[in-house]
């Protein structure tokens, strides 16, 4: 039986920090990218798969529904998995459909007009922050902001404070 080590939101998906810090630091043997749009883009899928092949890890790029089916089939069949997502909406959809994510690391979401920084690499808007709170309250997901394993781990309360959201 496999194991979901943790899930990470990083709008850049696979890059040096993910490959060298998180995968090795958590002794994982696989990364499953869950993104409906990317899973349908054969060209981009091949680029990601080729880039991961040199790191001796298994990389799968799955739709939300396929990730659920694969979990239900064999609990990821012996893989020690980091799940990667581009955004909060996809994580929320995946958890609501039944994937048992217990730890959610938010490591990289770019700044835009309606967003505020929580840590230097993560910016959120109020709606996203409220969605994270619901994931914590309704599904028991431990949510934390952290760029790399060596950096300070910041809890969800930091984001709630930025938007004056009460528990």
Automatic annotation (TrEMBL):
InterPro entries: PTS_IIB_sorbose-sp, PTS_IIB_sorbose-sp_sf
GO BP annotation list: phosphoenolpyruvate-dependent sugar phosphotransferase system
Subcellular location: Cytoplasm
Keywords linked to the UniProt accession: Cytoplasm, Kinase, Phosphotransferase system, Sugar transport, Transferase, Transport
TM region positions: none
Main location, first listed in the record: cytoplasm
GO cellular component: cytoplasm
Pfam families per UniProt: PTSIIB_sorb
SUPFAM superfamilies in the record: PTS IIb component
Ranges for domain PTS EIIB type-4: 1-167
GO MF term (any one): kinase activity
Annotated protein name in UniProt: PTS system sorbose subfamily IIB component
């Amino acid at each position: 039986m496999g194991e979901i080590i943790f899930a990470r939101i990083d709008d850049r998906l696979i890059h040096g920090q993910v490959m060298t810090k998180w995968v090795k630091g958590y002794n994982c043997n696989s990364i499953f990218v869950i993104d409906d749009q990317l899973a349908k883009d054969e060209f981009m899928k091949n680029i990601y798969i080729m880039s991961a092949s040199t790191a001796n890890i298994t990389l799968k790029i799955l739709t939300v529904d396929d990730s659920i089916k694969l979990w239900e089939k064999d609990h990821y069949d012996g893989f020690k998995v980091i799940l990667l997502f581009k955004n909060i909406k996809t994580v929320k959809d995946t958890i609501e459909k039944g994937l048992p994510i217990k730890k959610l690391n938010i490591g990289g979401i770019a700044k835009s007009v309606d967003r505020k920084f929580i840590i230097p690499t993560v910016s959120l808007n109020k709606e996203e922050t409220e969605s994270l709170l619901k994931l914590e309250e309704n599904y028991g997901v431990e949510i934390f902001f952290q760029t790399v394993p060596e950096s300070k781990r910041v809890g969800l309360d930091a984001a709630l404070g930025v938007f004056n959201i009460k528990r």
